[in-house]
Amino acid sequence: MASTSIACSHGDGQNIPQLLSDKVVLTPPYPGNRRGAVWAESSLAQSEWSIDFEFRATGPERGGGNLQMWYIKDGRPQTETPSIYTIGAFDGLALVIDMYGGQGGGIRGFMNDGTTDYKSHHAVDSLAFGHCDFSYRNLGRPSKVQVKQLTDSFEVTVDDKRCFASDKIRLPSGYYFGVSAASADTPDSFEIYKFVTSSAPGVTRELPRHDSSPQQPPPPASNPGSQLNDQGSQTSSNAQFAVQFTDMQNRLQALSQSLDNIFREVQQLSTKSEARYQDLLHRGSSSDQLNTMNQRIQSIETTLQGYQGQFSSIHGVLKDSHSTLNEGLTQQMTHIISTKSPKIGTFVVVIIVFQLLLAAIYVMYKRRRANGPKKYL
After folding, report:
1. Which of 124-138, 227-241, 265-279, 341-355 has the weakest average pLDDT?
2. Degrees to nearest 5, angle at CA 99 with 98 and 100
3. Which of 18, 81, 228, 368 could form a disulfide with 25 if both were Cys (CB 3.0 to 4.6 A apart)?
4. What is the pTM of this model?
5. Residues 24-56 as b or e (16 or more Cβ within 10 Å = b)
6. ∠ CA 157-59-189 to the nearest 5 degrees?
7. Confidence of residue 5 (pLDDT cuts 50, 70, 90)
8. d(C-alpha 257, C-alpha 119), whole Å
């Protein structure tokens, strides 16, 4: 069987997966909203196979993200760091590990024949053909996922416990494996420790296993499975120490990079705070003007208090004048009405004379009309 290795690592432009001595870090612990993926450079020629997949997810209490294991026809898609919600139309299998459902996490299986566009689908979650609950975050150890494709069955197990299976799924050969991950604003860090495919007992091949420690070549043997076992047993204690030292160094480098990013952000915040402080000091230089204005207001209040007595005296004078005017005007109007008004008797005589005059005029009018010539038609 031809060996399979990592073709290359892909990020989102801001994050490149880190290949360490014993793992691949797809998404870092800081910052969030990062993507990473690794893809096989050759396809799987066998129709029956098994995958041993180990990963670890760590993050804060409310962290989030998702991890996908792909087995698709054309290998790396146009979106090099896809998720099940952004890949579009693919042909093959996708296993998704995320916090869907809000019950501590789970693993779901999706299949597509290239006709369904997952990116534009209105309900991608409803397309899962199998699922099980799987609490995978912050366990302190790698989680184990095993996928088996046999002639008459397809099975997924998690930590040696059966997750879901089907006797109706038959995946063709010639497809490519890949693993991708994406983190949220509050990120989870996804680390791949093992990805081994087996087409027969004892015949394996690894995907994202990267080891910088020196290894002794395996002795010749007729059984490939025993070759791999002998190779692991021949690693010396010095080589193991070198592996641990290299891993520690890589971890320290990653931690140092994260601390540098935090320190850079702290410096930016400090610069902004200093600018705001200087602005406040500049604004505080106008306190002399405020003191001068306060003194002027106090002098105006003192002047108004001095005029308060004068205003009171003016108010008293106006009140007395108003009272005198009201009393005098009332007396004058009473005198005028009592002395200048006509007597009631004269008024009655005038009315009677006026009525007699009207009566006389009316009698004269009737007589003249009666003595006048009459006209007949």
Report:
1. 227-241
2. 95
3. 18
4. 0.54
5. bbbbbbbbbebbbbbbbeeebeeeebbbebbbb
6. 70
7. very low
8. 34
107, 134 contact by CB (below 8 A): yes
Burial of 178 (0-12, 13-18, 19+ CB in 10 A): buried
How many whole angstroms separate alpha carbon 25 and alpha carbon 193? 9
Q: How far is CA 353 from the centre of its chain?
A: 105
Q: Nearest-5° angle of CA 217, CA 224, CA 47? A: 130
Residue 142 — pLDDT band, cuts 50, 70, 90? very high
Residue 154's contacts (CB-CB under 8 Å, 6 or more residues apart) are 148, 165, 166, 167, 169, 170, 171
CA atoms within 13 A on the CB side of 144: 9
Give the model's pLDDT for residue 190.
94
Residues sharing a CB contact under 8 Å with residue 101, sequence separation 6 or more, in sequence order: 133
CB 155 within 8 A of CB 148: yes
Query: Which long-range CB contacts under 8 A does 213-220 form with residues at least 24 apart?
Result: 213/21, 213/239, 213/240, 213/242, 213/243, 213/246, 214/239, 214/242, 215/239
Antiparallel, parallel or unpaired: β 161-166 and 154-158: antiparallel
Neighbours of 244 (CB within 10 A): 13
Token output for 233: 């047993």
